[in-house]
Design the sequence.
């Protein structure tokens, strides 16, 4: 089985180098995979880093692509136009792959091959740099959700997922023919705000696959490590990320759940503002729990705005 491995990147040359090295040193036959790096308007040394590594790892086919439109879905769709193989692994530029990543993908795809199997993926586990970052994470465990850090660990058993369970594009492999047939990645979810980006393209893709009768398979055998730095626990970063996630999810859930999504978010918002904050004041819960309410409120605020006619993204 052949694989095309895609990395979409923007101004992360240092982290990208480590990610590429981990892919170039796979124990999978070098003539059975290629690596495509999509440079999404980087202004740092991204291009030279890619070209230098292609000279060092001559046995691995590394291809450089450039995408002018800013956004992960534009870059992902650009890559899909150029990949050679049908099994396309998406990998983030701030991740590290174990040497057996592609071999594990092969084993899972081969064992469960089916014309309806659209996406296969696995765990994204934290790798703290520096190591002391783990302490910061443990201190804010109640306040910061794993998904905000790009961590996913659905369990210890291989299983076909069910709606609304999803896999993240930092570690999933798609059937290119199916994905292109269904329209590729949703480019409405590549909108740039002045302080952050709207993501959620992987969630939208998983939901579309469910609604169109395709299968999504999770295997704990397939794992990568996501680099977690102290920046991810900065309060400004977290509030912005939660707020943008609210934009993503109100768009995706209104698209697939309709009015039910609005009712669910209204209940969540009321719970945070009325019940949890009052409980916080009366019971004097820890500061971390207060942060949880702040982030949760910013997450749901966008949806409340959309309910009264101020949507940031229209279906």
Sequence:
């Amino acid at each position: 089985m052949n694989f095309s491995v895609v990395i979409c990147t923007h101004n992360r040359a240092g982290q990208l180098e480590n990610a590429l090295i981990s892919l170039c040193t796979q124990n999978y036959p070098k003539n059975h995979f290629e690596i495509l790096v999509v440079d999404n308007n980087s202004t740092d040394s991204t291009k030279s880093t890619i070209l230098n590594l292609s000279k060092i790892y001559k046995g691995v086919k590394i291809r450089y692509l450039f995408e002018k439109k800013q956004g992960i879905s534009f870059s992902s769709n650009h890559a899909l136009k150029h990949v050679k193989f049908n099994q396309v692994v998406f990998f983030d530029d701030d991740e590290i792959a174990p040497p057996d990543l592609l071999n594990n993908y092969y084993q899972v795809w081969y064992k469960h091959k089916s014309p309806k199997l659209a996406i296969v993926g696995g765990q994204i586990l934290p790798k703290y740099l520096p190591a002391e970052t783990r302490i910061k994470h443990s201190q804010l465990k109640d306040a910061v959700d794993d998904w905000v850090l790009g961590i996913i660990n659905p369990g210890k058993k291989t299983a076909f997922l069910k709606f609304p369970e999803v896999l993240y594009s930092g570690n999933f492999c798609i059937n290119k023919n199916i994905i292109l047939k269904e329209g590729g990645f949703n480019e409405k979810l590549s909108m740039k705000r002045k302080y952050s980006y709207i993501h959620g393209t992987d969630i939208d893709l998983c939901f579309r696959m469910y609604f169109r009768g395709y299968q999504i398979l999770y295997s704990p055998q397939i794992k990568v490590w996501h680099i977690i730095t102290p920046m991810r626990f900065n309060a400004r970063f977290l509030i912005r990320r939660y707020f943008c996630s609210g934009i993503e999810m109100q768009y995706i859930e209104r698209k697939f759940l309709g009015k039910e999504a609005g009712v669910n978010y209204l209940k969540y918002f009321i719970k945070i503002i009325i019940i949890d904050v009052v409980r916080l004041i009366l019971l004097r819960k820890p500061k971390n729990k207060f942060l949880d309410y702040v982030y949760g409120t910013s997450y749901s605020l966008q949806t409340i705005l959309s309910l009264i006619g101020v949507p940031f993204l229209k279906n």
Notes: Strands lie at 3-9, 33-39, 61-66, 87-91, 95-96, 117-128, 159-160, 171-175, 215-228.
